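Protocol step 4 of 5: obtain the predicted structure for the target chain.
Materials: sequence only (see below). No template structures provided, no constraints applied. The aim of this step is simply to have a reference model before the mutagenesis design in step 5. Sequence pasted as it appears in the construct record:
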Amino acid sequence: MAAYLPPPAGELPVIFADDWLIVANKPSGLLSVPGRGPDKQDCLVSRLQTGFADVMIAHRLDMSTSGLLVLARGEAMQRYFFKQFRERQVAKRYLAVVAGQVADAAGEIDLPLIVDWPNRPRQKVDFETGKPSLTRFRVDSRDPHGDTTRLALEPVTGRTHQLRVHLATLGHPILGDDLYGGEAAGRADRLLLHAVDLAFVHPATGRTVEFHCAPDF
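Step 4 output (structure tokens):
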């Protein structure tokens, strides 16, 4: 089952930092930003602010998802990155281990998503009122003995829980997914989803910068 307790504080998980931005490797089980209530104030942003007082969120990862996250330094940079994400100028790639053998070597999952209000924070597929949601996938490897598939994932849109819902709807939930995984939730002690690659135009140089961080699974 996915981890609920945040990992203990330690060395800041900074991969890159300059005067404009920070790229960090968020651990699984740690919130990106503070949640509601005093027990949900520990998060990546608050930990990074101990070393970088001006750090601000630019986008988020689910608490259970690990991997690369870019953070802005100051309000002007936050506006810059919000615009980059809104206009889909940031390239993201994830790795996931899913239940079963995915038949196609590559493909797309095009299913509209909307919040499942009675069961928040769950999301659901809804062809009438859902927002367009597109995920591209490619098989990285298959494990017939463990009956799993390792997938490279590219979320073209950035809906809440998009990768998790799309793969579960496809019939291949991510291992360790406590919301959508069914029996696959118990097949890992955390959600096996990791943001492995991130690329964007640097606000100061105008050049594309790329970052890579391999998962620990």
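Step 4 remarks: The mean pLDDT is 95. The two ends are 15 Å apart (CA to CA).
Proceed to step 5.
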